[in-house]
Specification:
Length: 210
Amino acid sequence: MLKLFKKQKKAFTMIEVVFVMGIFVLLSGSIYQIFRSVNQSFAHSQNKLDILQTTRIIMTGLRNEMRNASGKPQWRNGMLLIPVNESLTKVYYYDKEERRMYRGEKGEIDGPDPDISEMKQFMFDDGQILFFDFESSYDDSNAFVESELTLNAKVWCKITMKILYTEKFSKLTEEDKVAIMNNPDDDHRVKTIFLVITPRKVNWLLQATQ
């Protein structure tokens, strides 16, 4: 008598299906977290690079123009005025409210200042500049300048900037924004950058006192 054997079809049990799905979910979650971490790290690094490059562009321009100034750079009405020659003055303006830096030009240094709308904004799209200031080893007092010349002191101009270096200002919480603006030096995310320039043409300082 012939016995017929039916082939048994192999199939996954419910336990095996649930187990495989659990492994798949765990792997998918892990891959997503890795991808998200890499993406955030790249965006963070790109942001820092953009900020560093823009800061370098600003500082390089200031250094070159101030070293070759034909007259005394002056800080007036919130603007840094750098005379390139008798008929051309480079103008830098820092908007404290919007934390943005502008660059423009005008004629002679005592001429009317340009309107902000006529000036070019540096490519900080998010108000990363928290502070901008200008100092010098001279002022408009002849007595002070003559004293420095008598002492043969070196003429220098100093630019100081405080930059939110690690992240976009708009992504901070309101609490963080207030804390950083009130005490930028106490926050590790803020970098202070300064540049001290000695003009190549220091004769203008002596001429200005005569």
